[in-house]
UniProtKB/TrEMBL annotation:
Lineage of the organism: Eukaryota, Fungi, Dikarya, Ascomycota, Pezizomycotina
Coiled-coil boundaries: none
Signal peptide: 1-21
Species whose genome carries this gene: Pyricularia oryzae (strain P131)
Lineage top rank: taxon: Eukaryota
SUPFAM superfamilies, A to Z: Dimeric alpha+beta barrel (SSF54909)
Swiss-Prot/TrEMBL keywords: Signal
Matching InterPro entries: Dimeric_a/b-barrel, EthD_dom
GO molecular function, one term: oxidoreductase activity
Name of the protein this chain belongs to: EthD domain-containing protein
Length: 199
């Protein structure tokens, strides 16, 4: 495997305060992105009653293992949590103009890479998403904010420039580095939903 550290990750490690750096996710591999893959970047806003470090902790330690089995089932080839924050104009996916000219805050960016639009739509329609994932989102995302807390969403085709060579085998695997018991718990819960609804 190729170990890659991006310039942005290096800057993030220097610029983010130590309190946040302890929870920062910087994977040591960058998967190849197939030509014609799609990517969704979703700028998410935390609930106002939640401190940012609690939001980041919940997003990584609780939400990530909930999402992982669903993402793997539907061939999502990349799910990353970009633990950045700031302000952005509200933006709906596929629209040229912002939804508002008033800046809004965001507390993280979710990145999904997937082979085509139907994969993401199918994933979001799965009963596990509606019963488990969406339920957890309501615990830490400000659902009253623009677009249900996804204050800016960008969806586009990915044009790969750097990645693994032709001889490397890229298989989507769960690379979440949290607690193994938590991973197993949500994998089993997902398997139960998937079996019940899809045999």
């Amino acid at each position: 495997m190729h170990t890659q550290v991006t310039v942005l990750a290096a800057y993030a490690a220097v610029l983010i305060p130590a309190a946040l750096a302890a929870h920062m996710v910087v994977p040591n591999v960058t998967p190849s992105v197939a030509s014609n893959s799609m990517q969704m970047l979703s700028y998410i806003k935390r609930k106002s009653c939640m401190r940012r470090d609690d939001f980041l902790r919940h997003w990584f330690e609780v939400h990530a293992p909930i999402v992982a089995p669903l993402a793997l089932k539907f061939g999502i080839t990349g799910y990353s949590q970009i633990q950045a924050f700031g302000q952005i104009l509200p933006q709906n996916a596929g629209e040229d103009d912002p939804a508002s000219n008033e800046l809004t805050s965001f507390d993280g960016i979710a990145s999904f890479i997937y082979p085509n639009a139907s994969v993401l739509l199918d994933m979001l329609a799965h009963p596990y998403y509606t019963a488990v994932v969406a339920n957890d989102e309501a615990k830490f995302i400000d659902k009253k904010a623009h677009n249900g807390g996804q204050v800016a969403v960008y969806v586009a085709e990915v044009v790969p420039v750097v990645g693994y060579g032709k001889n490397d085998t890229a298989v989507a695997v769960d690379i979440w580095t949290g607690d193994e018991a938590t991973r197993e718990k949500y994998q089993a819960l997902f398997d139960e939903y998937d079996k019940r609804h899809f045999g």
